[in-house]
TrEMBL record, chain A:
Key word Cell membrane present: yes
Lineage of the organism: Bacteria, Bacillati, Actinomycetota, Actinomycetes, Micrococcales
Predominant location category: membrane
Keyword tags: Cell membrane, Membrane, Transmembrane, Transmembrane helix, Transport
Protein name: Spermidine/putrescine transport system permease protein
Annotated source species: Leucobacter exalbidus
UniProt keyword Coiled coil present: no
Matches recorded under PANTHER family: ABC TRANSPORTER PERMEASE PROTEIN, INNER MEMBRANE ABC TRANSPORTER PERMEASE PROTEIN YDCU-RELATED-RELATED
Membrane spanning residue stretches: 34-60, 80-107, 119-141, 161-185, 223-245, 265-288
GO annotations of cellular component type: plasma membrane
Automatic annotation (TrEMBL), chain B:
The protein's name in its UniProt record: Spermidine/putrescine transport system substrate-binding protein
Single GO cellular component term: outer membrane-bounded periplasmic space
Any one GO biological process: thiamine transport
Species per Swiss-Prot/TrEMBL record: Leucobacter exalbidus
Domain of life: Bacteria
Single GO MF descriptor: thiamine binding
One Pfam family linked to the record: SBP_bac_8
Length: 303, 375
């Protein structure tokens, strides 16, 4: 394509629309703009779509054509236990993160710029530390002979209380990692709430509890949904933290996938697990988007 | 906001479809990279630990190992000296069986030698691993009974041993596999492998504790072995990585552990009061596997042949604490290491029943999956 045709195209296209209306909409050379998307399409197709299709096909053809891998998935007791546990853990983590993040995000909206920067720094800092390092630190802190149990024994003469290799330990480690993903959408949603609405409600006779539940909470809902969905979905895929802070009784779907792929070399079963996790994720996104007023998952994104 | 008109949208779809077709074509083609056959070099009769000087000038080999000080030691003691003597270039990578399968399936193998277990080479012999041509490798000094399938030359000998806390049981140490499961006589938490990686020796150890002959097993025995571990209840804690096993022993969290000998040694070398039980221990052998479809089989064989020399093996043992696979190998050992040296205690070790586990792998893996996921 030469410069000549490009210029020519735009000139010819914009000429009739020059009189009024929105000239941009009248440009018939829209398809040229589309060309800009081609590299992205190629990359997405090559590195995302094609492997995904491959994974799906493998799940119904390896070792032979049929649904035997999905049958295995849903009829093996160990799998059901792990699936239920994975969703349960992700739910607990989402709940804990919401409880911790809500007041924190609210605090960020009412303090001055300097304090807000500090709060933001505190929430971002863990993101810059390796997940492995943080998990190893928890391992040291939580173990039966670790400092927490040591202090409990020295001060109160109790213990050792099992902290590591429990759902508590796993949820603690995961919540610490995922907290920023809850705080940031909540903050972004809360900072858009008009501050004058609360005094206005008070003026109309609403008490603090009524004000919160009828005015503030509904307005912050987009943040709760998008933060909750992000944390929940990320939580479903956790691997390293359940492996290190949990025992076999806390292992999650990702450990099962790794085992099928890398140890048993039963790729059909591994890919079936992967597709199952993906379908669950998409379903969650679709269901939650129904609850958001404008159908969008993320606050500030208009449909 | 940029909006598509229906006509443009159709074109957009066409572009996407075109890109998808192109991408799929590219993927389809990437599989079968054609390679020129490499002419055979004349290397003479193989002698373990030797290679003809400059025989592999310009050849590049890649070793995929299990990382850590183990792979560092192998690199320093085995592969770098081979590279220097033969003129080859040696690269290092991290081994993963899933990645190996992907390479072999795609017909694009970038590893030449991998460090894996004797069960994996036996299971994947001919499909994932090349059969060895033992006329190109001098196996005369390999300890008897350690070549357990046609696709392996031993890499190291080590063991799954009970490591116990000497502060707890110094005067009255455990002396049998059954003692490991006797929480009345030996109270306290014990750690045992619960990693996703299937470990037949962990199962064999429990069977030995039940008085079964490991050389003569039946598939019905498998569940019983796991029941024995589950019967330990709260007294059993799991390790999912070797580092974790070592950490649990060092911190004293576990008073006893069924761990890789190298990890028990690691805890002892770090100053923890930990000693090995040699009365009943499980012999383990790692394989040098050659991936199926490797580009230069002769070079890979020559490197393996070089790596099993007495001198190379002695140095590897000194660097990694793992036992050598050359009967003439005489490593210099300090006191701690000599107490943990599996090759000094072969008379009391129990050899694995490789054929049984290869044959009954499905039953084993299903039972192990349940054990490793706590259900």
């Amino acid at each position: 394509m030469t410069d000549q045709t490009v210029t020519g195209g735009i000139a010819a296209g914009s000429a009739p629309g020059a009189g009024g209306g929105t000239p941009r909409r009248r440009i018939p050379s829209n398809w040229r703009t589309l060309l800009l998307f081609v590299p992205a399409f190629v990359i997405v197709t090559l590195f995302f779509l094609a492997p995904l299709i491959d994974v799906f096909i493998r799940s119904i053809t390896d070792p032979k054509l049929g649904l035997q891998n999905y049958e295995w998935l849903f009829t093996t007791d160990a799998n059901i236990a792990v699936i239920v546990r994975t969703f349960g853990t992700a739910f607990i983590v989402t709940f804990v993160c919401l409880l911790l993040a809500y007041p924190y995000a609210y605090l960020m909206t009412i303090v001055g710029d300097r304090a807000r920067n500090a709060l933001q720094l505190f929430i971002m800092m863990p993101l810059w530390t390796s997940i492995l390092v943080r998990t190893l630190a928890w391992m040291v802190l939580l173990q039966d002979t670790g400092p927490i149990n040591g202090l409990l024994a020295a001060w109160f003469g109790i213990g050792p209380i099992p902290l590591i290799r429990t759902t508590f330990g796993v949820a603690l480690g995961m919540s610490q990692v995922l907290l920023p993903f809850m705080v940031l959408p909540l903050y972004s949603s809360m900072s858009k709430i008009d501050k004058r609405l609360l005094p206005a409600a008070a003026n109309l006779g609403a008490g603090p509890i009524t004000r919160f539940f009828t005015v503030y909470l509904p307005l912050s809902r987009p943040g709760i949904f998008s933060g909750g969905v992000t944390v929940f979905i990320l939580g479903l895929g956790f691997y390293i933290i359940p492996a290190l802070l949990g025992s076999s009784k806390e292992s999650m779907i990702s450990a099962l996938i790794q085992q099928q792929i890398s140890v048993f070399l039963m790729w059909g079963q591994g890919t079936a697990l992967g597709i199952f996790l993906l379908v669950c994720t998409i379903l969650i996104l679709v269901i939650v988007s129904r609850f958001n007023k404008n159908g969008s998952l993320f606050p500030g994104v208009d449909k | 906001m940029f909006k598509l008109k229906p006509r443009s949208a159709r074109r957009g779809t066409a572009i996407v479809a075109g890109a998808a077709a192109l991408a799929l074509t590219l993927i389809g083609c990437s599989g079968g990279g054609s390679t020129e056959p490499i002419p055979e070099r004349d290397l003479g009769t193989p002698v373990a630990g030797e290679v003809k000087a400059g025989a592999f000038d310009g050849t590049t080999l890649t070793f995929a190992g299990s990382g850590g000080i183990f792979q560092d030691g192998q690199t320093e003691a085995l592969w770098n000296p081979f590279a220097e003597a033969s003129g080859a270039t040696f690269n290092q990578d991290a081994f993963d069986a899933g990645k190996l399968k992907a390479m072999v399936d795609a017909g694009n193998v970038s590893w030449d030698i991998v460090n894996t277990t004797q069960f994996d080479t036996a299971r994947g012999c001919g499909t994932l691993f090349e059969e060895y041509d033992y006329s190109q490798i001098d196996v005369s000094k390999i300890p008897e009974g350690t070549i357990t399938d046609k696709c392996m030359v031993p890499q190291i000998m080590y063991g799954l041993v009970v490591a116990y806390n000497t502060d707890e049981f110094g005067d009255n140490p455990p002396t049998s596999a059954a003692d490991f499961f006797d929480t009345k006589k030996f109270p306290g938490k014990r750690t045992v492998s619960q990693s996703t990686y299937v470990d037949p020796q962990t199962v064999e150890f429990a069977l030995a504790a039940q008085g079964k002959d490991v050389a003569n097993l039946s598939p019905d025995d498998i569940e019983g072995a796991f029941d024995l571990y589950k019967g330990l209840g709260d007294d059993v804690i799991g390790w999912t990585t070797g580092a974790q096993a070592q950490q649990q022993l060092e911190s004293g969290e576990a008073v006893m552990g069924l761990v890789w000998s190298g990890r028990g040694y690691g805890a002892a070398a770090a100053g923890a009061p930990v000693a090995p039980m040699w009365d009943e221990w499980m012999i383990m052998v790692d394989s040098n596997g050659i991936p199926k479809g490797v580009k230069d089989k002769q070079a890979a064989f020559a490197a393996v042949n070089y790596s099993i020399g007495a001198e190379q093996q002695a140095k590897m043992t000194e660097l990694t604490s793992y036992g050598g696979v050359n009967v003439d190998s005489k490593p210099k050992l300090d006191e701690t290491l000599s107490t943990w040296m599996t090759t000094e205690h072969l008379d009391t070790g129990i050899a694995p029943n490789v054929d049984f586990w290869v044959e009954n792998y499905d039953a084993l893996s299903a039972a192990w999956a349940g054990w490793a996921t706590g259900s």
